[in-house]
Specification:
- The chain is an all-beta fold.
- It has one domain (3-76).
- It is built from no helices and 7 strands.
- The chain has strands at 3-7, 18-25, 28-36, 44-46, 51-52, 58-64, 73-76.
- The strands form 2 sheets. Strands 4, 5, 6 and 7 form a 4-stranded antiparallel β-sheet that branches. It has a 3-stranded antiparallel β-sheet with strand order 1-2-3, with no helix packed on it.
- A hairpin with a 2-residue loop joins strand 2 and strand 3.
- The chain is globular and about 45 Å long.
- The mean pLDDT is 85.
């Protein structure tokens, strides 16, 4: 079963963090980036654990960015 994780900055294409998936492949894990934060309304530096709802959507928060610069709650839809 894949593991879903958050990576705090400086990860991702803009250096503001990512959500990624680790999938076991024998003795190693393959990493797939699901989302790369862009330093805007989507937030900066995700740090909280991911929460999944019954439809598979993922929720969490960031430490800064967002509409007022004080963080954001985000949702990733599968």
């Amino acid at each position: 079963m894949p593991l879903l994780r958050l990576e705090t900055k400086p990860g991702g294409t803009s250096g503001h963090g990512t959500v990624f998936k680790l999938t076991p492949n024998g003795n190693v894990y393959n990493e797939t980036v699901l989302y790369s934060f862009q330093h805007g309304p989507d937030g900066i530096a995700p740090v909280a654990s991911l929460i999944m709802d019954s439809s598979g959507a993922l929720y969490s928060t960031t430490t800064s960015g967002g509409a007022n610069g004080s963080g954001a709650v985000f949702k990733l839809i599968p």
